[in-house]
Design a protein that fits this description.
Helix 3 (50-63) packs antiparallel against helix 4 (69-78) and helix 9 (184-200) packs parallel to helix 12. It is built from twelve helices and five strands. It has helices spanning 27-31, 39-48, 50-63, 69-78, 88-95, 115-125, 127-173, 175-178, 184-200, 204-210, 224-242, 247-254, and strands at 5-9, 12-19, 22-26, 100-103, 110-114. It has a five-stranded antiparallel β-sheet with strand order 1-2-3-5-4.
Length: 255
């Protein structure tokens, strides 16, 4: 579970975080728009409504394979009555719900909800506030995507520069020795796998077999830190190739 992030909506700080690539937004923070002193009571009042319970139940049935429908039915039947009270914690414990998450902590705690549910809650709080929330949420996601894209570009450029150094060394020192025995492309590929084994302990073919659903190659899924190490390994391997050191010895040195 990632650390909370914050967006500002009409002067109010709204916390959110990601879990399993899904965005969760603080209902507690949203509720402060109506009652800054007792936001948890606002959330409980929302959960008393029959339409709310029906919405939560349907969301869980669509997204949660382990949702306890038998435990849900009594809540659905009692919701809306004067005596019905339901806290987020009880809902989660009884039904195994994943759409709501209760977090403890003085500054980062409260009730969080999957964005689908959070936007529904915000409609109940204020349609106007909901539109502002959606706008700021989208702005955050666009900024994250831009940052991710920039990080990707940096990684690829870093890899390209060192790849040229590496392939030049192969071309000048290895291919002339193997020109009559092995096609050029296999010489390049074997040297690439030597680096893969040194850094990732796996060849490109083995990685593809282990990750059949992933597009691209093993280096596309590397962190920037791994790409920096790979960059240094390519430079070092290029020097070792120039020195005429055999692959097995180079692998030991690169490790």
């Amino acid at each position: 579970m990632q650390k909370n992030k914050k967006i500002e909506v009409k002067g109010l700080g709204i916390s959110l975080f990601q879990k399993n690539n899904d965005d969760y937004i603080s209902l507690t923070d949203i509720a402060r728009y109506k009652n800054q002193f007792e936001p948890k009571d606002i959330v409980k009042n929302w959960m008393r409504s029959k339409s709310t319970i029906e919405f939560l139940g349907l969301w869980e049935k669509l997204n949660n394979p382990v949702f306890k429908g038998v435990e849900f039915d009594p809540f659905k039947n009692e919701a809306g009555s004067n005596s019905f009270v339901l806290s987020p914690q009880r809902w989660i414990e009884k039904t195994g719900a994943i759409g709501l998450i209760s977090k403890s902590g003085r500054y980062s705690g409260g009730t969080f909800a999957h964005k689908d549910i959070a936007f529904e809650f915000t409609s109940w709080i204020s349609p106007e506030f909901k539109l502002y929330l959606i706008k700021e949420f989208q702005r955050l996601k666009e900024a994250e995507n831009q940052k991710s894209s920039l990080s990707w570009d940096v990684k690829r450029e870093l890899a390209k520069v060192n790849y040229k150094i590496h392939t030049d060394a192969i071309k000048q020192n290895l291919i002339p020795l193997k020109i009559d025995r092995i096609p050029d492309k296999f010489v390049y590929a074997s040297e690439g796998d030597l680096l893969n084994q040194a850094l990732f302990n796996v060849t490109a073919k083995e990685w593809r077999k282990q990750n059949p659903k992933k597009e691209g190659n093993i280096r596309d899924y590397s962190t920037i830190e791994q790409l920096v190490v790979l960059s240094n390994l390519e430079s070092l391997n290029a020097e070792l190739i120039k020195q005429g050191i055999e692959p097995k010895q180079r692998l030991l040195k690169l490790n």
